[in-house]
Design brief:
single chain, alpha+beta, Creatine Amidinohydrolase, Arc Repressor Mutant, subunit A, 2 domains, five-stranded antiparallel beta sheet, three-stranded antiparallel beta sheet, 6 helices, 16 strands, 30% helix, globular
Length: 308
C-alpha cells in the first residue's frame, strides 16, 4: 500500500522500509559468513537471495558479486560456474523490497592480504555521511563528505558511479548522488518522502577513477510500457512484468520457463526489440581494484532513518 499524508511518509510505508532493511542486513551478514575463496558465485547469489525471502521480502535486484576491478552490476546466470578466486576483494550488493519499498546495501569483503585501507576509506565515507545527513541536506554536501574522506586515504573516488534516489518499485529515479563534489548539486536537496541509496566507490591512486561498461553482467529489466502484440514474447513479457514489475531481474529467476521450447527465442526477441535492456557490468578504467560500501536512508519530516 502506497500512502502519503501531507508530504509525510505513512507508518505503513516506514514499516515496509524497515522490513526491507532488515532483510537486506540479514543478507549482508550472511555474506560475511559464506564469501570465501573457492566458493561458487552462483551459490552465493542464490544463498543471499534466499535469505531475503526468509525475511518475508523479495529481492529488489539480483545479488551483485563483483571481484577486484569489477565495480558493479555483475551477477551469476543459470550456467555460471565461476568461483571466487584467492587473494581478491569481493563487493556484495543486495537489495530487498517489501511491497515495492526498497532497501539497498553493499559491503566489500577482503580476501586478500592488502587493500584494507581502500575498504576502510569507503566504509568511513558512508559512516561520515550517516553522521552528517539531515532533512534537506544538499547532494553537494554528501558528495563532498565522500570525496574528502576517500582522498584523505590517498585513494580516488569513482566519479561516474553514484548513489540514487528510490521510490516504490523504482530502484533508480529522480537525481543521482555522485561520489565527487559537483557545484550544480548545491541546490539539490534530500527532502522528506523518498529513500536514497548512498554508495561510496573508490579505487587506488593508480586507478583511473572511472568505470567502463561491459556487456554480459546477466542483469536485465523491462523498459517498454507495453508488451508485444502477440506470441510467446508477449506471454513472457507479461510474466516478467507480473513477477518483477520494472525492477531488475536475471534469467536465474526464470528457471521454470527453461523447459518451454519457445522461451529462449522469446527472451531474445524481447531483448533485440528493446522491450528488455541489459545492464552492462562496470569495470575500473585502468583495471585496478574497487571497493564499495552502501546504505539506504529514508528521509522523514523531522528525521533521517538509516534502514540498513
Amino acid at each position: 500500500m502506497y500512502l502519503w499524508c501531507s508530504g509525510l511518509v505513512s507508518d505503513e510505508v516506514v514499516e515496509a522500509y524497515r522490513r526491507a532493511g532488515e532483510a537486506a542486513k540479514a543478507a549482508i551478514n550472511r555474506a560475511f559468513e559464506i564469501v570465501r575463496a573457492g566458493v561458487s558465485i552462483k551459490d552465493v547469489c542464490d544463498d543471499l537471495e534466499r535469505k531475503i525471502v526468509e525475511f518475508g521480502c523479495k529481492p529488489a535486484f539480483p545479488c551483485n558479486i563483483c571481484i577486484n576491478e569489477v565495480a558493479a552490476h555483475y551477477t551469476a546466470d543459470e550456467n555460471t560456474r565461476t568461483i571466487i578466486p584467492d587473494n581478491c576483494i569481493v563487493k556484495v550488493d543486495v537489495g530487498a523490497h517489501y511491497d515495492g519499498y526498497i532497501a539497498d546495501a553493499a559491503v566489500t569483503i577482503n580476501l586478500s592480504s592488502e587493500h584494507e585501507d581502500l575498504i576502510k576509506s569507503v566504509r568511513e565515507a558512508i559512516d561520515n555521511v550517516s553522521n552528517d545527513i539531515e532533512v534537506g541536506v544538499s547532494v553537494m554536501k554528501i558528495s563532498t563528505i565522500i570525496e574528502k574522506t576517500i582522498k584523505s586515504y590517498g585513494f580516488k573516488p569513482i566519479k561516474n558511479l553514484c548513489g540514487h534516489q528510490m521510490d516504490r518499485y523504482k530502484l533508480h529515479t529522480g537525481f543521482a548522488i555522485p561520489n565527487v563534489k559537483q557545484v550544480k548539486d548545491v541546490f539539490t536537496k534530500l527532502y522528506p518522502g523518498y529513500a536514497y541509496a548512498i554508495e561510496p566507490f573508490a579505487t587506488i591512486d593508480s586507478g583511473k577513477g572511472e568505470v567502463n561498461g561491459v556487456r554480459g553482467g546477466n542483469i536485465f529489466k523491462l523498459v517498454s510500457p507495453r508488451p508485444p502484440k502477440m506470441g510467446a514474447a508477449r506471454s513472457l513479457f507479461l510474466a516478467i512484468q507480473r513477477r518483477f514489475n520494472y525492477l531488475p531481474f536475471t534469467r536465474r529467476w526464470l528457471s521454470d520457463f527453461r523447459d518451454n521450447p519457445s522461451y529462449s527465442k522469446a527472451f531474445y526477441q524481447l531483448l533485440d526489440r528493446g522491450y528488455i535492456t541489459e545492464y552492462p557490468y562496470m569495470v575500473e578504467g585502468n583495471g585496478k581494484p574497487v571497493a564499495q560500501w552502501e546504505h539506504t536512508f529514508l528521509i522523514l519530516e523531522k528525521e533521517v532513518v538509516r534502514v540498513t
